[in-house]
Amino acid sequence: MLGRYLRLNRAGVLGLNRRNGDYIFAHNQRRFYPLVDDKVLCKARMLREGLAVPDLLGVVRSNRETRNIDGILAGAKEFVIKPAHGSGGDGIMVITDRKADYYVDSDGGLVDQDHLGHHLTNVIGGLYSLGGRPDVAMIESLVHFDPAFSKLTWQGVPDIRVIVYRGYPVMAMTRLPTRQSHGKANLHQGAIGVGIDLCTGQTFGGVSGNSAQSFHPDTGSDIAGFKVPGWDQVLDMAARCYEAVELGYLGVDIVLDRDLGPMILELNARPGLNIQIANRGGLGARLEAVDAEAGDETPPPNERVAWSRSRFRSLENVAH
Amino acid sequence: MARVKRNYQWLVLALFLIVVSAVITWQKIAGLGFPTRPDMTTETWSIQAKVELERRGGPVKVALRLPSSPPGFSVAEEHYISRGFGLTVDDSPGARQADWAIRRLPEDRTLYYRARISQGGARRDIAGPPVYPAVPDLQEPFRTALIDIVTEVRQASADTRTFAAAMLAKLNSATPNESMALFLSEVHGPQDRIELIQTLLAGARIPTLQIHGFVPEGDVRRVDLQTLIGVYNDQQWLVFDPKTGRQGLPERFLVWSTGSPELVTADGAHVRDFQVSVRRQMVSSLDLASERASAERIGVGQVSILQLPIQTQAVYEILLLVPFGILIIVIMRNIVGFSSFGTFAPVLIALAFRETELLRGLALFVLIVAMGLFFRFYLERLRLLLVPRLAAVVTIVVLLMTVISIVSNHFGIDTGLSVSLFPMIIISMVIERMSVVWEERGALTSIREGIGSLVMAALAYVVMSIDILGYWVAVFPEVNLAVLGLIIMLGRYTGFRVTELFRFRQLDPKQDPKQGPAPDSGKGG
After folding, report:
1. Confidence of residue B296 (pLDDT cuts 50, 70, 90)
2. Which residue from B501, B510, B516 is facing A211, i.e. has the nearest CB?
3. A243-A247-A252-A257 Cα dihedral, nearest 10 degrees
4. Phi and psi of A31, rounded to 5°?
5. Average pLDDT of chain A to the nearest whole number
6. What is the pLDDT of residues A177-234, one digit of tens each?
7. Of A91, A162, B364, B404, which has the fewest CB atoms closer than 10 Å, so is most exposed?
8. Would an 8 Å CB–CB cutoff place A315 in contact with chain B?
């Protein structure tokens, strides 16, 4: 046990306590949290900074408005309902179609008006928000994922998570929805995390839950060696989020839309640590490398991306 | 390397809190004699001075010398029994005395002074600094003899202490020399002997003081008061036994008074008898220490909940244990890496277990939560709004508790379910959270977190029901400062959690990453 503790430490693996104590507290000022914790605010800020996001269809703020859902949707057949203060993907409902009076969810199940309204009131009541505070439900347009991912996902939308530390991308993975995750891209709901080589944008081995995974359980496709399209753009957007929200330790979730290209789905001020397992490498070592590089002046995003790409290559870990 | 700026203020604060806590506790244990276990007793002595007066007529004044903060002892519960007399206690240092007065004594009376003494007072000096005596003006041949003795003893000594010791040795010698024999021929009793020592030492201008007292031992009806001699060496009073010449205050010697050998003096009446008696008593150390603390008005002694009304004490005894339960939660979450429903809900559940005992409490908890979950899933189908739904769950929990109590009572089982303390709100929240997690993350995660909460609650219960801990927080509430210090330290623990050693096992370089254990999918991060 102690041996593993020391070996993990030497390998630069980051634990929750250290993530919170040394990185989140030190680099994420609480006053900037609302920008990422409130998805409605976050979307507005991203738009202001010229970063692409899925369209906002509307916001449901009160139980009365849930009855007027048709008015808000304005005929949209595909949409996603998200609690504005939700975390970990809880409370997200993906609707892919409408049939008569029913909605079709991402699993193909039918959802009636009543059920949809109940879900909205739950969101507004604060069931999914931190501390149970009243919340609002955000309705945004559905992303159509890039067909390049089609063999690597079970319904849902795969996304790319990039950890950005002090403006430098330090680690990335793509999260592939599975049947078990009901088409959602959250690892703890059963999605697979696949590490990405920061330099080339190529995937290597994956992780499901806490264990290694080399093929997609539902499609059977090999998940290693896949090249993420538009990788340059993905890294550039991720790096620019630092200027947008001023959080030093940030998880940026990006989706690749078939027609609209990379879009920022959401930001996370407390991104999880499973990305290390997906990348088979420790995050701590890379954060220390950034600390050694970054001075008082923050270079522009393109220079930061270039530095990260040259420094954090492939499987091999950061050499000191 | 430009790392995060290190700030060790937390460490300083944590250590400070722990030290403060330790110092206060130590003060109370060593200084005031607070016992470290509830059943400890201390030997105390009930002392009584009895003055029998014989009536003579006319106004009567009686003065009785009293012990005044004797070194190594503390005096408590002083009582004066003196029917009809006016009483004033003169607290002047070194000459504390009770003055009784009455205009006319109708009959023979007996006056009493009673007190309880116990060991453990501060080691103070016997008296303040004295005035230096003049060389006694003696008649010949005593004058020459005194000079002889002083010169001789001075040669055989180096300082006041050795001078006094040598003088006593000379005096007590089996074969005194001529000069000493001259003085000794005038000695007819122990009191003369004491005065002789004082005279001889005054010949070298050394201040002396008579010290009257005794060693309390067992039950003695009539204590023989002993007189020791104090010698001032410009810094402190050294004590010598005039008979043996032994230096130092004998072990457990209670100093009753200093100076004049007359402990009691009476005007207008005859003291027919004066006696001091002693009785040994075993007393709860805790009572004694609290008494002493309030008598001596020492700040730290007041830091205890024992002064509060009994019901309030009972509440605080529980409240003061909560930080220990919380410490367990902090350890389980941040060091071990367990998760639970609600941050401190396990502590509240543990408090409820105190009412029901552990196993019964666990069974009740599981039963109520399981039944509550069942109803909660049904409520989900009714699509109630959040707050009314929570309210419905609370109501159901209350009803469930009532039914369980009635049913178990019917079968003659006492559930010991205290409605006031068994936290129905907490249980309702646990049910609500469990059902949400159940739907969002699956039954397995939900049940696992539920069990995690119960394990933490059980651990917190076990810690909080350690008897000696309950006693300690009541008597030494300041130990919670140390708990606070520990919690602050744990708050800066940035190492791995135990569960992370399993979670990140594939990142352990010693293992082949391709040969990770079988996928245990479904376990969240």
Report:
1. low
2. B516
3. -40
4. -65, -15
5. 86
6. 888 877 777 777 788 888 899 998 988 877 776 677 778 888 888 888 888 989 999 9
7. B404
8. no
| Interacting residues of A312 by C-beta distance below 8 A, sequence separation 6+ | A169, A170, A171, A198, A199, A286, A289, A318
Q: Give CA–CA dist A157/B253, Å, rounded.
A: 89
Nearest in space to B303 (alpha carbons), one of B17, B32, B18 = B32
Q: Which fold has domain A56-141?
A: Dna Ligase; domain 1 (3.30.1490)
| Cross-chain Cβ contact A276/B498 below 8 Å | no
In chain A, which residues have their Cβ closer than 8 Å to the Cβ of B519?
A: 208-209, 211-213
Residue % of chain A over a pLDDT of 90: 36
For the CA atoms of B284, B287, B292, B295, what is the dihedral angle to 10 degrees? -150
Residue A276 at interface with chain B, using a CB cutoff of 8 Å: yes
Residue with tokens 């029998």: B52
Domain ranges in chain A?
Answer: 2-51+145-311, 56-141
Which chain B residues touch A291 with a CB distance below 8 Å? 1-4
Read off the pLDDT of residues B317-339 as tens digits, 9 standing for 90 and up. 888 999 999 999 999 999 998 88
Kindly state the average pLDDT of the residues B9-33: 89
Q: Residue B176, preceding bond cis, omega within 30 degrees?
A: no
Highest mean pLDDT among A53-62, B196-205, B352-361, B384-393: A53-62
Does B387 contact A125 at a Cβ distance shorter than 8 Å?
Answer: yes
In the prediction, which pLDDT does A319 show? 36
What residues of chain A lie within 8 A of the CB of B383, using their CB?
114-115, 117-118, 121
Distance CA A164, CA A238 (A): 7
Residues of B whose CB is below 8 A from A91: 440
Closest CA to A85 of A59, A104, A106, A107: A59
As to burial, measured by CB atoms within 10 angstroms (0-12 exposed, 13-18 middle, 19+ buried), residue B294 is middle
User: How big is chain B by its Cα radius of gyration, in Å?
Assistant: 37
Rounded to whole angstroms, how far apart are CA atoms B320 and A196? 52
A-chain CB neighbours of B506 within 8 Å are 207, 210-212, 277, 280
Domain A2-51+145-311, architecture per CATH: 2-Layer Sandwich (3.30)
Cβ of residue B334 closer than 8 Å to a chain A Cβ: yes
Contact B481, B20 (CB under 8 A): yes
Residue of A4, A118, A273 with shortest CB distance to B508: A4
Q: Is A17 within 8 Å of B504 when comparing Cβ atoms?
A: no
Give this prediction's pTM. 0.69
Q: Are B278 and B47 in contact (CB under 8 A)?
A: yes
Q: Give CA separation, B259 vs A35, B210, B308, in Å.
A: 83, 5, 43
Q: Does A195 touch chain B (CB under 8 A)?
A: no
Whose structure tokens read 């050294």?
A: B238
Search chain B and give the residue with CA nearest A289.
B1
From the candidates A16, A113, A317, which should be mutated to test the interface with B, based on the most B CB atoms within 10 A?
A16
Taking 50 as the threshold, does the pLDDT of residue A21 lie above it?
yes
